[in-house]
Amino acid sequence: MTQFPCINPVQVQTFRHLLKACIAQRNLITGKTLHALYFKSLIPPSTYLSNHFTLLYSKCGSLYSAQASFHLTQHPNVFSYNTLINAYAKHSLVHLAHQLFDEIPQPDLVSYNTLISAYADRGERGPALRLFEEVREVGFRLDGFTLSGVITASGDDVGLVRQLHCFVVMCGYDCYASVNNAVLACYSRKGFLNEARRVFREMGESGGRDEVSWNAMIVACGQHREGLEAVGLFREMVRMGLKVDMFTMASVLTAFTCVKDLVGGMQFHGMMIKSGFHGNSHVGSGMIDLYSKCAGGMVECWKVFEEISAPDLVLWNTMISGFSQYEDLSEDGLWCFRELQRNGFRPDDCSFVCVTSACSNLSSPSVGKQVHALAIKSDIPYNRVSVNNALVAMYSKCGNVYEARRVFDRMPEHNTVSLNSMIAGYAQHGVEVESLRLFELMLQKDITPNSITFISVLSACAHTGKVDEGQKYFDIMKEKFGIERKAEHYSCMIDLLGRAGKLKEAERMIETMPFNPGSIEWAALLGACRKHGNVELAVKAANEFLHLEPYSAAPYVMLSNMYASAGRWEEAATVKRVMRERGVKKKPGCSWIEIDKKVHVFVSEDTSHPMIKEIHMFMADMLRKMKQDGYVPDIRWALVKDEEAEADEKERRLLYHSEKLAVAFGLISTGEGVPILVVKNLRICGDCHNAIKLISAITGREITVRDAHRFHCFKEGNCSCRDYW
């Protein structure tokens, strides 16, 4: 029998107070020291103390230690189980949380609430509702935590939220602010702002509003582009003397970000500086989000970041996310990710999602695989849905749809984003059969599609000319799923009709849209006109485009190229002159390829690369072989007047287009049979498309080219687009 030293009750009480202080301050080091004393039998064992050590490790994010502490508890009670269930829930290990829940001899209401909340955080309505029914069958008296959890879990089903809202009012549970806040947030997320306003108003009449209610309503207004109302609510909070904290400030910043009100956001930034909130890490995240999305760059974001003396993990993640929104700044996003680790932070699921997005922009398979490996080795559970979703998108954008599908198939569960990512990946690669099959699978699994799902599905139809199928999906969006059609959906339909040569129908769709067409719609029509050579309609589309975005180079370049292809050189020269006079600059075309973790960039007729002689020799030999196989250079793509260059000169210029040079370098720098990926910042030219098909057949290589619009996977003389691009 273990003999304990003589310890008086005062010492035990002091030990308890120290342990509680460690939990409150998340002081893991001191807590472990106390646990060591406890193990050495200097303190009599008790379930109370064992539970609090489990709670300490849970609060500090040390799941393994929490598990060990729980299993060492000699006589675990319901609090012991609830603590570890909560730890599992925080790490998104809901299946383990539910397994442990099933082991509790007599679960209490807290047990049910914790598990319902875990399912709510993951948006899993079914299990949460089953637990809710079980709670009522057992006879527990429901509280605000139970109802707010099940309402949050039901957020995607507005009809169910309405039913639960009725239940809340009828049974008198609307006295709980947390329940009303959950209802308000659900209505807002699904686009029912008036219902959210009504809930907020009724809360005011009953005196049941708290700071969370005001913050939720401010966010709701921001999400629905009601920025003035959001700011008005903030002013009302201040006038009423309510406590304005960092969460309130962040909510107002979210409103400015949602409505893209940079000026108002900057004025609010000035107010925060005067009130001393500008150094707060949470508020700083909101400011960085505002500037990264509304200021067109990251300069101001750096200034905000440098003002914060103790940046936390969320702030670093926001910086990485900001950089990943700009393809040209994705390298800085990777640098931020490395700095995050150098500063002692462990990346969480959000960190991996943001940095994976940066890898997608760079189309860097090697860096993407390194991030994937780090995610597997890290403390976060590898099956975290959001990380897997980002990996699926990353592999798709890096041209490896096979690896994307492997990650997708290994995921223990899928949500709407998972299927959206895989559907979009197949759509970009021209594998429309799999894309549409996954959409049908999504419906069979009772996973509700959203507006992004239909953008991917319509894109798949557009890339393959499936006009009837596209029209069907466009119709059922509103009729079957109640999803409002947005500009992106109309753009996809215009692209679908235009690619199929139905230019009049595409023009009619623009004219009959329920809102004013934007540059996206006119750009889709302009691209279709270019494909089918309809110069007159292209002029109209380009003028409308320029009216909306006078300094965009795209309409000038496309119209000029169309005139040049049609031999209308004077009109082409006029467009270029207007472009120069207005100071609009064309983005220079370039292609790049990653070999041995190093990126090699090429421009048209490039002579700067150290292996350019070998590349030119390879292309000359390849041209001879291609001509033997019937290749005839399409000199229209040289876009040069006959009097300015002879046919041989035009052929030479075509031979040294950037994508051909990148492909040539990739072939001579890699082993036989190794697939290569080339990325181009503009659309691939028609002659290069024809040439690379032949090169893939001659060399027996799989060559993937990612241009500004889609992937072209060349294999054995064919392209995945089936020449429909």
Set out the fold topology.
Blueprint: H1 9-25, H2 28-39, H3 47-59, H4 63-72, H5 78-90, H6 94-103, H7 109-121, H8 125-138, H9 144-153, H10 158-170, H11 177-189, H12 193-205, H13 211-223, H14 227-239, H15 246-258, H16 262-275, H17 281-294, H18 299-307, H19 313-324, H20 330-342, H21 349-362, H22 365-377, H23 385-397, H24 401-410, H25 416-428, H26 432-444, H27 451-464, H28 467-481, H29 487-499, H30 503-511, H31 519-532, H32 535-548, H33 553-565, H34 569-581, E1 590-595, E2 598-603, H35 612-628, H36 647-655, H37 658-669, E3 676-680, H38 686-699, E4 703-706, E5 711-715, E6 718-719
Parallel strand pairs: 3-4
Antiparallel strand pairs: 1-2, 1-3, 4-5, 5-6
Give structural notes.
The protein is built from 38 helices and six strands. By secondary structure, the protein is mostly helical. It has a six-stranded mixed beta sheet, with helices on one face. β3 (676-680), α38 (686-699) and β4 (703-706) form a beta-alpha-beta unit. It starts with 8 loop residues before the first helix and ends in a 6-residue tail after the last strand. Pfam families: DYW_deaminase, E_motif, PPR, PPR_1, PPR_2, PPR_3. Belongs to the PPR family. PCMP-H subfamily.
